[in-house]
Fold this protein.
Amino acid sequence: MIHKSLKQLSQALAAKEISSLELSTLFLDRIERLNPEINAFVTVDREKSLQMARAADARIAAGSAGPLTGIPIAQKDIFCAEGWTTTCGSKMLANFVSPYDATVIEKMHRDAGMVSLGKTNMDEFAMGSSNETSYFGPVKNPWDRSRVPGGSSGGSAAAVAARLAPAATGTDTGGSIRQPAALCNLTGLKPTYGVISRYGMIAFASSLDQGGPMAASAEDCALLLNTMVGFDPRDSTSLDRPVEDYTRELDATAGDKPLAGLRIGLPKEFFGAGCDAAVMAAVQEAIAEYRKLGASTVEVSLPNSHLSVPAYYVIAPAEASSNLSRFDGVRYGYRAPEYGNLDDMYMKTRAQGFGGEVKRRIMIGAYVLSHGYYDAYYLQAQRIRRLIANDFVEAFKSCDVILGPTSPSTAFKLGEKAADPVQMYLSDIYTIAVNLAGLPGMSIPCGFASDLPVGLQLVGNYFDEARLLNVAHRYQLATDWHNRRPADIA
Amino acid sequence: MKQWEVVIGIETHAQLATVSKIFSGASTAFGAEPNTQACAVDLALPGVLPVLNKKAVECAIRFGLAIGAHVAPKSVFARKNYFYPDLPKGYQISQMDLPVVVGGQLTLQVGSGDKAYEKVVTLTRAHLEEDAGKSLHEDFQGKSGIDLNRAGTPLLEIVTEPDMRSSDEAVAYARALHALVRWIGICDGNMQEGSFRCDANVSVRPKGQAEYGTRREIKNLNSFRFLKEAIDFEVQWQINEIEEGRKIQQATVLFDPDTGETRTMRTKEDAHDYRYFPDPDLLPLVIGEDWIARVRNELPELPQQKRERFINELGLSAYDAATLTASQEMADYFESTVAVAGKTSAKPCANWVMVDLAARLNKEDRDIAASPVSPEQLGGLILRIADNTISNNIAKKVFEALWLGEGATADQVIEKQGLKQITDSGAIEKLVDDVLAANAANVAEFKAGKEKAFNSLVGQVMKAAKGKANPQQVNDLLKAKLAE
């Protein structure tokens, strides 16, 4: 049961082979047993989850169930959920119980009738690529517990990889869904900016943040995406678009060349130096597989992609430095136990409440926005951002999707890069440009290097999620990488 | 001693009269229990996002059109970053590089009577922003309370060029702006509640010098009197400093109404770096021509237009026209009065509204909107003066009677109290003859060249007529008889 796809679980629930209560209990028991080792969840509330499961069972019994009613899911602890402690991986919010639901949570709980199993660990305020910046300790990669699961949605990735949950939510500012999906052998999708509401999703870098699903397969992600998207009047950057069914292309019958006519762009900048040879070998095999499925490949160029990491590390910290100003100890969250005057309260609260990486980025952000540096850093980075977006516009003139590695390496050792922020920042070298351009991107499993999963990144044009999911799905019909599980996860 | 020229620019924060806040759905009503009108967005809970209130934008467009400004087709909200407990997000959403309203002018009357003159003040810009909450420093024993009810209330910050040259001009500008924002319905203008607050940038320079002196900004003046007192004090202080050989440092100062003095709050050195940048949570504000056209159609006739019409169509002086358009209520009252009394009586209508009615209202500290005498009643009264039914003096009696509710119309009062003017020349001649016969001494004095004696005779006749004789006829007849 724990290895079933969402579609299979949905069928099992509909056929009354299992109740949501039983299914949720199954996963909650696994969490209780395995989480102490993996540390994927920071908050579990069995009674709350079971209450949702009972409500879902009532909906199923009443015949008013939707496709995901009763299906358990893990929520990244960046999403505010009413009555749930919502920490964002920080000491600053360790005691914060949200009085309201994020739009994504509301859609999953109220509309879809899904069951939240708990809140998953993450890099503090989503700043990190290894999950080591969490106040609640690092998450272990279920494939090798001495290694990181990636970040910042590392708890969600580890939870799904260890089958503590059939699926999870994540958020992606510079690769935080795709990179942990790659490192944990999952399928993860970051949609076009504006497709999923950011309301109630604690902001890291507002112009880059986007929620998305993390699951075992593209099909699971498509089902989840259907419930997560939609115009939200509470988010001014949410896009008012016609509703679409992201599973619509998946069930079409196709011959042995289901992707005939598809043009896959291979950016030469993603196939040069800087990527592990074993990762590259797996990616090349995936390309060969795609050709077998009927796709053609074309070399494209993203000439400014070498500027994406520097531009990102100006824009994201700039926005973060302002977004995180609200954590001041005045209204909620952590406040230093002892302080002198008001300034002292601010300083002690923020010095004690934030971890090192968050403080580093706040300082970078405040610096690049300060008088006399704004033009040279912030405005310049915004110009580069436009150039990068234009690169993609050009590239998509000759291809339908862009393909390359998700991450330059497989899961690295815990602590390996923790002392070297620049090395850590380079983990996201292939994913960041996609956020800067606001495009949809996916990572799907495409093989192993020294027994560690390798992720393949697929990038689509704006609003091309349905095609992207289908391109991933056809590959997953022809391969079984995505069905591999860590040896001890039975 | 050198001659000094005063240079003043004014920034005004006008709270916009919207039902809900600029970026949330919470109410903007004043005076509720602390923190009862602050929703998740106003409290800046983790994860919340701002959504722009279109009504606030509409207020800005109205204002832009009313001052003949450029309404920007695209403007941008920016974050102004600083820490303060009543600023929940740690930044204020405002507009910096691209404000919604650019330029514009306000024409005002400065001074009164013969010394009155017209002044045109150029506006630099007006931009939308959110108000902060309030820190409550009393009642918490060594701690401060925070009330976030005001947080997120929409503000229009209206900035002038340094065009004003005296505290009188500054006050005239503030009054004209205050009247305008109320006139077009974008601000209730309640200064006690902080709905309309002025900051004055003040500097002095030797007359004839082209460069401006160093300015100091007086913050948060919430009455016209304080505005004047603060500027007058500040100007004198700056002149003294310079004359004693000291330099003015750019600074922000506060005015203490109790001492009448300004004191330095912070100097340029410790000014914040607000690290402005475009708010990524909000899209640029795009205002299409159609939106502007719709707002333009909904605009009432503006004070300036009304003023010109009063001068051109009704023949009023510029001063009268300006006084009568000081508020929408006053202008409405005047126009309703003229509607009854007729355009030919526009000048007497103006005098009655500006002098008699104003004095009576003032005596009881009433608003013109709450006048016991309606414009229809006053118009009816002025009609009876015009057609010689009553004299001006009797009219004052009738007005008082209307004020006290002793009759529904002027005609009723005149009828009931028998105040109709005597215009029958035979009757008046009889009165005149009687008075002349009974006051031989006065007649003799007059004939001896004492002009005063004439007035006394007029008085005697009017007294005999119980004030009802037509004064002009009495005059003419007396003169004729005395000349015989």
Summary: The radius of gyration of chain B is 30 Å. Chain B has a mean pLDDT of 93. The longest helix of chain B spans residues 224-243. The longest strand of chain B covers residues 117-130.
